Amino acid sequence: MKYLFIFCMLFSFFSSCNEVKEKNGIILRVSLDEQETSIMEIFKRIDVVPLETTDSCLLIWPDKALYVDSCFMIFDSKNPALFCFDKNGKFIRKIGRKGSGPEEYVDVYDAIYDDENRCISFLSPFGELFSYTPDGKFIERKRLPQKVNYQSFEEIHDFYVTWTLPVSDKDFGISFISKDSLQCVKEDWQGNRNLASLYPKCFYKYGDEISFFRSFDRNVYKVSKEKMSILYRWDFGKDNYSMEEFGISMTTTKGEDEFSLLIDKLRNGTIPYLFCSQKQTDKYYYAQLIFDFNPHNNYHIFYRKLDGKSYFFRRTVEGLILNPIYSNNEFMLCLAYKGNLEECRKILQIEDCVKLDKMCEDDNPCLIKCYY
């Protein structure tokens, strides 16, 4: 019994070395020294799902996915619609259509699934929502409060939570909009508008909470109609930075040339990295960092909740480059093209290698289903 007590005390001590609970959220301590990481250290197994390629479902710039009724729904930001595939990758239907008709849109920037109301909704930058059933039938078109350039959104219970690009430092970026009245009931988040436009998909949903992050902020916030609070903060030790070090305020815009200066500092590495994606599951906190403002120079952080162990890497030792577009507590969905998968055949199951052999170089990407 004595040894069990000692073991528990040691485990508690060492696991708390990387995760520290403070009044303003949990501190996640991670080294940004790249590690050799096997995909099998994070996931139990991976499955390959080649997506059917036809003129009706050719993907141009897929950057998000929904998972509804065992169906993969891929959002393509360059051909804005949801392309739906079954569990084997066979194309089923397309949801949404560009046009000028009453059931069509000029453009949409984001898509979500409302589980309570069993509908899919698209967000137009012009302040409209277009809703459909999961089998693609049009439901309704809604007008949101007037804002400049709606970018992304989530939903929770009776509210939509939207992100819009602020015109001035006094404008609010986050709006809580009642699903019933379609009126804004609360606004939040002000700051330097030049820091607001990069990577606008800034919400993720975990359980019954919506989290919010920004590209140059190591804090992740809990979105609440009452009061926003810090959920957790990344601590990268010697690799931490603040924008003030580079002469850029988080709260106040400084002149018309500041945005160009910001991009220059990102490209030349003066500002070393920024956050482009964050997620959370029961097992991991996840973040994706982009270095040198190069989309091909993105790194992944997986922080294991159980013991505080973290993984930081660009590609796995097997050669796999992750491109996550969806995650839940069971699996993470990543996109991969034939060329990348050829490099890591040794970790694929025999049947997945057979699927790979049947693919052509210009086919749609595969979905890599990585099981936790």
TrEMBL record:
Superkingdom: Bacteria
PROSITE patterns reported for this sequence: PROKAR_LIPOPROTEIN
Pfam families the record matches: DUF5128
Protein name per UniProt: Putative phage tail component domain protein
Organism: Bacteroides cellulosilyticus DSM 14838
Organism lineage: Bacteria, Pseudomonadati, Bacteroidota, Bacteroidia, Bacteroidales
